[in-house]
Specification:
The complex is a heterodimer of chains A (about 120) and B (about 110). In chain A, about 0% of the residues lie in helices and about 50% in strands. By secondary structure, chain A is an all-beta fold. The mean pLDDT of chain A is about 90. Classes of the chains: A mainly beta (about 120), B mainly beta (about 110). At the A-B interface, strand 5, strand 6 and strand 11 of A face strand 4, strand 5 and strand 9 of B.
Chain lengths: ~120, ~110
């Protein structure tokens, strides 16, 4: 079964600082990768996703993530954070659609809380 | 599109009572997932359905938990009897077979006293 590790439990940044949140997964086959964001009191929303092609993926609100297959990583980045980015961020992995039974099961990391100080 | 709909949004109940959480997936989606979120364990998949059939319930914590999907537009997650350690936010999510995106509902915050 696949698993996801998010290295940082809580990150605190000042506005305009750059952000990088780490995500590593364990699964030897082809995967689809996702970052979700959960704003305080709200449900999870998709930030970006990777399934094939260019390993640098751009998402909403200026976020991007880079898939490095050799490192089993899918780190999330943003060059300049805003106070409104304060939220919890979840990395998730799913076996690629052609991987057979169980392909639709998303496995989440434990999340990284981001606090941005104005 | 109304998105995934869950009810109730908040539930407070006493230990030993039966709790039923409800979910309406996005129309046309044929996969439905139930997740539980706690501070200690993060997001855990409890069970998921494909075309109303349970595919994997290995995440259901114990026999007190049961889930049904009687039709394509409705699912329930039942806890009987409830215990304080069941307190969590329960999310329902849905997806279609050809989509890479899982859509989450707003969640039900359950508190068992």
């Amino acid at each position: 079964a696949q698993s996801v590790s998010q290295h940082n439990h809580h990150v605190i940044l000042s506005e305009a600082a750059s952000l990088e949140l780490g995500c590593n997964y364990s699964y030897g086959g082809t995967v689809n990768l996702f970052w979700y964001v959960q704003y305080p009191g709200q449900h999870l929303q998709l930030l970006l996703k990777y399934f094939s092609g260019d390993p640098l993926v751009k998402g909403i609100k200026g976020f991007e993530a880079e898939f490095i297959k050799s490192k089993f990583s899918f780190n999330l980045r943003k060059p300049s954070v805003q106070w409104s980015d304060t939220a919890e961020y979840f990395c998730a992995v799913r076996r690629a659609l052609n991987s057979g039974a169980g392909s639709y099961q998303l496995t989440f990391g434990k999340g990284t809380k981001l606090s941005v100080i104005p | 599109d109304a998105g995934v709909i869950q009810s109730p949004r908040h539930e407070v109940t006493e230990m030993g009572q039966e709790v039923t959480l409800r979910c309406k997936p996005i129309s046309g989606h044929d996969y439905l997932f139930w997740y539980r979120q706690t501070m200690m364990r993060g997001l855990e998949l409890l069970i998921y359905f494909n075309n109303n059939v349970p595919i994997d319930d290995s995440g259901m914590p114990e026999d007190r938990f049961s889930a049904k999907m009687p039709n394509a537009s409705f699912s329930t997650l039942k806890i009987q009897p409830s215990e304080p350690r069941d307190s969590a936010v329960y999310f329902c999510a849905s997806s279609s077979w050809d989509s890479l995106e899982v859509h989450f509902g707003p969640g039900t915050r359950l508190t068992v006293t």
